[in-house]
Amino acid sequence: MGFNHLHCQKAAINTLNAGVEEAMNWLLSHMDDPDIDAPISSGAQAAEAPIDQSKIDTLITFGFHEELARKALKASGGDIEKATDWIFNNPNASTSSDMDTTSSNNTTPTTTDAGLPDGGGKYRLFGIVSHIGTSTQCGHYVAHILKDGRWVIFNDNKVGASINPPKDMGYLYFFERINS
After folding, report:
1. Residue 82 CA: distances (Å) to CA of 77, 85, 137
2. How many degrees, rounded to 5, is the angle at CA 102 between CA 99 and CA 105?
3. Are the CB atoms for 127 and 146 separated by under 8 Å?
4. Residue 141: what pLDDT?
5. How many angstroms separate the first and last alpha carbons of the chain?
6. Which of 34, 44, 104, 151 is the most buried (most CB within 10 A)?
7. pLDDT means per 10 residues in the chain (180 residues)?
């Protein structure tokens, strides 16, 4: 497209290789930067702007620890969606020291759990939410519900028989307990 190699490298680095369109948009919006022709140095990333605390707080509300949220936002250039993807694509990024393990080794029931029946452990699938599309950012969600012994698909305002629901491709599964 006529861009020089250094500029293309900077665009790829600053968009975390998100794609050609993102890199080109970044490059077009940074062509007048005074350091656009400066060589890429390993310390260039250290001079980034501080991470927005509201974005960290948003990731914390999703259930991620603060340190992991910071790491993901730094790796994704401050984009919350890319940071969330980064967290899921880098499961080893959160070490065991980042996680709260105080209750994970507790195998004895607490007094609040002691009165709850354990049950037989038998459940029946009665609903699936599945996704149609290439990614969670592109596509459509539909629901498959077991009603009166038949699977039914709910797609916005359309309802129809679901002959072969995608039980192995569900995004979310709904079960009910079978009492024996």
Report:
1. 8, 5, 11
2. 105
3. yes
4. 84
5. 68
6. 151
7. 83 82 84 85 57 84 81 84 79 51 44 62 89 75 91 84 82 85
The answer to whether the beta carbons of residues 118 and 128 sit under 8 Å apart is: no
H/E/C letters for each residue in 82-140? HHHHHHHHCHHHCCHHHCCCCCCCCCCCCHHHHCCCCCCCCEEEEEEEEEEEEECCEEE
Token pair, residue 101, equals 């393990």
Distance CA 99, CA 126 (A): 33
Q: What are phi and psi of 133, to 5 degrees?
A: 150, 175
Tokens standing for 51? 């991470």
Phi/psi region, residue 122 (left: phi>0; alpha: psi -120 to 50; beta: rest), is beta
What size, in residues, is the chain? 180
CA atoms of 94 and 92, how far apart (whole Å): 5
